[in-house]
Design brief:
Layout (H helix, E strand, L loop, with lengths): L22 H17 L22 H15 L5 H6 L3 H5 L3 H17 L1
Length: 116
């Protein structure tokens, strides 16, 4: 006889009910995540806009993007998969990635999850 161990889904499996699906709200949340990261480097006074580039403007490295990916999953659940998002980009596109591109991706993911 086979038994299945059933457990409750982890909080990161699904997005919180209150996840915003509009760009200004998502920008504010992602800016907050980035400010927390930048604060550790003493760079908390940098303005973050839709045009802000992760590499050029914020000087983030790959490990910082891994940290950001974890923050995104913690906030929005697995429906927002940063690794999957960048996997579809060429190296040059990753280097030039803007906060706005990420915001648009998160908004699409949250809206798609809301339609299910």
């Amino acid at each position: 006889m086979t038994t299945v161990n059933q457990t409750a889904p982890s909080p990161a499996t699904e997005a919180p009910v209150e996840a915003p699906a509009d760009a200004p709200a998502v920008l504010a949340e992602i800016s907050g995540m980035l400010r927390t990261m930048l604060d550790e480097y003493g760079l908390d006074d940098i303005e973050i806009t839709m045009e802000t580039r992760f590499t050029e403007d914020l000087e983030l490295e790959s490990i910082d993007l891994v940290t950001l990916a974890g923050s995104l999953e913690a906030r929005y659940g697995r429906q927002v998969n940063f690794a999957e998002f960048v996997a579809d980009l060429e190296l040059e596109e990753i280097i030039d990635l803007t906060v706005g591109q990420l915001v648009e991706y998160v908004v699409r993911c949250v809206r798609a999850a809301g339609e299910r």
